[in-house]
Amino acid sequence: MEDTSKRQANGQNDISANPDLSGLEWWKRNLKYRLGLTTDEKEKQKFEHDYRIKQLPKQCTTCEEGLDWMLKYSPSVIFMMDHVKKQGGNINRSNIKCDVCDDLKGGGFNPDLGILLCSNWIRDKWHLEDILTHELVHAYDYLKFNVDYNNLKHHACTEIRASMLSGECRIWNEIKKTGFGGFGKKFQSCIKRRAILSVAANPRCSGAEEAEKVVESVFQSCFNDTRPFERVYR
Q1: Per-residue pLDDT band at 104 (split at 50, 70, 90)
Q2: End of a domain among 144, 165, 184?
Q3: Do residue 128 and residue 193 come from a single domain?
């Protein structure tokens, strides 16, 4: 989870008809973009923005339906919801929100507001399961270990644990992304990569170099801590 002060929902809710989002013009722009024929940066940004807006109704509905399913049937989500509750937390359906996010993140946790799921960046319900479990680990850590996001080591540790325990770094996912090379190191490499990106985005961090040093300094102890799970399946 990144510092939630840096994560804000996009206020764009107006999905009224736009002639550029349908018919022949939409198809032409889509084809140009997918074939790499669009070189103008503003045109690329406009296409990406318009594409997300076009997809919003479907994405939001899919996110809400996936969330309801996970809260009823997902072993990892139900398990983490239970352990957050045991720590005195109050994460429930009313404060887990699907919304549009203006950056390339899947979700976020805020101790005062709850959990945000970024419907415009969630690929499918299994991706949603990983993201929700990730954010529930942050909620658990915040309550269990009194996490202070101004402390970069605290931030790094909860990111390491969330990526490890959520399933998002499972080895098969990494093989699909990067191939079989370095098979034995894929799980840890994924966790470190995600943690570094998150810590680097913390306003207290000077950048990627400091983030990498902080993550390395706490990695082994945080990686070895699988609470509340007994063990991790890769």
Answers
A1: low
A2: 144
A3: no
